[in-house]
Amino acid sequence: MFTIVVDMHTGGEPLRIVTGGYPDIPKGTILERRAYVRDHLDHLRKILMFEPRGHYDMYGALLVEPDLPGADLAVLFMHNEGYSTMCGHAIVALGRYAVDERLVAPREPMTTVNIEAPCGLISAAVEVRDGKAGAVSFESVPAFLFARDQRIELPGYGAVGFDIAYGGAFYALADCRQFGLEFGRNRVRDFVDAATALTNKLKAELPLSHPDHADLAFLYGTILTDGQDAISDTPTKNICVFAEAEVDRSPTGSGVTARLAAMHAKGQIEIGRTRLFESIAGSRFSGAVVRTAKAGPHDAIIARVGGRAYYSGRAEFIVEDDDELGRGFLLR
């Protein structure tokens, strides 16, 4: 088999865009297509995301035909564990890619690219100058605080306080200082261990629900923050550990959306104010609450998150018939 890809990164977080070589996917809703790829084509995810072509923290995007009216393109996200419902860093990269590849006709100074994701329709605004795409921001689906000011006993750490918020995917949000951690002092591995412990505990003990579809009701990961939610004039740091202990190099677009939903619900950020969110790698996304909304019974917000994506390569991948390791493996 062979697969053609374009590699990009947003804030240091990789995105491998599949541009050719994938089998046809039956028509249906985006969630039905996600289920089909998961159940029938998962060996291709492993080939593209795992070693020797990828790595433990690789991320990918498979473009498919849109189903929703008004969508310019549709995307399925993939990573080391499976298939996400939303990915903000991918939306930023795909917005630029769509304009550069003329999947959407460029218009200056701003081009709108409507991207159908498993969580719903995402509207990306791409800055265009002299026909070239630049920075991208997006408005995601309604985001909301699902569980506020919760506490749980976590072996090895004691009592830990957390929120759970939805920003296209569900995240646990917790102050890293509760785990004895500090940005710039502790190893990334220390943050990964703490976040993974909380994620696994909550997956086992705290059921989630989403008003739109049961397939959206799963805990994607944990975001450890510097605790500076209520300070509105300085950047706030976080690290997102998602899927199978995968570390996001960017501030995490859906994670920033979830944090904004929690901050707004707690009166820590007002509509129209912009915050900067900084990742473990030092990259930054802007984030703002645009307006309020509803998500079933939940009071929700529409957030706008912005960043910049860059190209890092183009490739054609092959797998020889007798290459067992070439079908994908992971070392950590």
What this model shows, in words?
By secondary structure, the protein is an alpha+beta fold. The chain folds into two domains: 2-140 and 311-316, Diaminopimelate Epimerase, Chain A, domain 1; 144-308, Diaminopimelate Epimerase, Chain A, domain 1 (Roll), CATH 3.10.310.10. Helix content is 19%, strand content 40%. The chain is built from five helices and 17 strands. It has a 17-stranded mixed sheet that branches. β6 (120-129) and β7 form a beta hairpin. The mean pLDDT is 97.
Q: Which CATH-level-2 architecture of the largest domain?
A: Roll
Total number of distinct structural domains:
2
The major pleated sheet works out as: 17 strands, mixed
Query: How far is the first residue's CA from the last residue's CA?
Result: 27 Å
Please name the fourth-level CATH homologous superfamily of the largest domain: Diaminopimelate Epimerase, Chain A, domain 1
Order of SSEs, N→C?
Answer: EEHHEEHEEEEEEHEEEHEEEE
| Total count of helical runs of at least 4 residues | 5
- The rounded Rg comes to 19 Å
Structural class: alpha+beta
Q: Please identify the top-level CATH class of the largest domain.
A: Alpha Beta
